[in-house]
Design a protein that fits this description.
single chain; alpha+beta; Peroxisomal Thiolase, Chain A, domain 1; ten-stranded mixed β-sheet; two-stranded antiparallel sheet; 12 strands
């Protein structure tokens, strides 16, 4: 059997909520199972047809994928695997399911990411001796115990200095991202993407997506005291959320009547030094297009013909670096606002990108109200992960 095509025929997510906010009482199964159910309904797929389930998560421990699969009503026979590569977990889980489809190990897969940081277990670092005090571990643990290890803000500040990106430029990018999200909400572009877990307005919109005043940017205190440019206003904050995609093999897609879908083209992962982790998404995108040139299938893929780039940016400077370094048109990157606006649901963030790309290339291009007929049919998702990992994936509208 040769390599098969893989199609994402449905993608849904929850609204993203601040830690202790919108989803404060929801365990990971209660947060995610309704999204699985909604995505399966969109796809017209019976749970009995599923033969692969992969879930990205970085905070629960154990195998929460199995818990979510059973809570979603999937058959007990469905293999369920949890993927943990920190922020990249959700995207890597979807890529894992795509590989299973392409290699013939599964015909129908459910994959995505979920993070309930509000209810996740606390983790405590074991002291090295009886004379030291235990301390809580961060959601994104450092690679070592060394105080000299560069952390994300320091890596991003180094990038801002190297590229000469001022705080003013970062604040302007962030403000524009909030304005884009507000416009998208007014135009109902998130309808059909977000699964309200209860019937109220708050459940249908991202909790942090409220446009701040200019004073909010000016008054924000930088994370690093000396010449710092990164602030809470121009960076993304940890959130709760879940996102799920339904992936099928080409023969299933044909049997379903070739519904509008995202066809997987190529994925890439790239490691960089931990101190340069802010560059990881950029490096992953460059690797992806280097690989795309050797596909040999007659298709031509380039940065110039991307319709949408969904980037889970840790900060405005990271988004600016990707835009400037690759020469991508600014309006193509996060056209409905990015993670600075929505928040960063850790292991679910990459799966949220897929739901957003599905909306941009498929859902809103087959809807009378939101059609974008001139948008190129190719889209990209990309993000970085703690420790210096970048992931990217290329899709085209089918």
């Amino acid at each position: 059997m040769g390599i098969r095509e893989a199609y994402i025929i449905a993608a849904r997510r929850t609204a993203l909520g601040r830690i202790g906010g919108l989803h404060r009482g929801r365990r990971i199964d209660a947060l995610t199972a309704p999204v699985v159910t909604a995505a399966l309904a969109d796809a017209g797929i019976d749970p009995d047809a599923i033969n692969c389930f992969a879930l990205g998560n970085a905070s629960e421990g154990g195998n929460p994928a199995r818990l979510v699969a059973l809570a979603s009503g999937l058959p007990e026979t469905v293999p369920s695997t949890t993927v943990d590569c920190q922020c990249g977990s959700g995207l890597e889980a979807i890529l894992t399911a795509i590989r299973a489809i392409r290699l013939g190990e599964a015909d129908v897969a459910v994959a995505g990411g979920a993070e309930s940081l509000s209810t996740a277990p606390w983790r405590i670092m074991r002291p090295r001796s009886l004379y030291q005090t235990p301390h809580f571990m961060r959601y994104e643990p450092s690679m070592t115990d060394s105080v000299d290890e560069p952390q994300p803000f320091e890596a991003s500040e180094a990038m801002a200095k190297r590229l000469d990106v001022s705080r003013k430029a970062q604040d302007a990018w962030a403000l524009q991202s909030f304005q884009r999200a507000e416009k998208a909400r007014d135009e109902r572009r998130f309808v059909g993407e977000i699964v309200p877990l209860r019937a109220n307005v708050e459940e249908a919109r991202d909790q942090s997506a409220t446009t701040p005043d200019l004073e909010d940017f000016e008054d924000a205190v930088a994370f690093l005291p000396e010449d710092g440019t990164l602030t809470p206003a121009n960076t993304s904050a940890m959130h709760d959320g879940a996102a799920i995609a339904i992936i099928v093999a080409d023969r299933v897609w044909e049997r379903l009547g070739r519904p509008p879908a995202l066809r997987f083209v190529l994925g890439a992962c790239q490691g960089v030094p931990p101190g340069a982790e802010a560059t990881a998404p950029l490096m992953a995108i460059e690797k992806l297009f280097a690989l795309a040139g050797s596909l040999g299938n007659g298709a031509s893929y380039s940065l110039d013909n991307l319709g949408v780039v969904e980037l889970s940016e840790s900060s405005a400077v990271q988004a600016i670096a990707v835009q400037q370094s690759l020469g991508i048109a600014p309006e193509v990157i996060n056209p409905d606002g990015g993670a600075i606006v929505r928040g960063h649901p850790l292991g679910a963030s990459g799966a949220v990108l897929i739901a957003r790309l599905f909306t941009g290339l498929v859902r809103n291009n087959t809807s009378t109200a939101n059609a974008l007929p001139h948008a190129p049919p190719t889209g990209l998702v990309a993000q970085g992960a703690i420790g210096g990992l970048g992931l990217s994936a290329l899709f085209e509208r089918a």
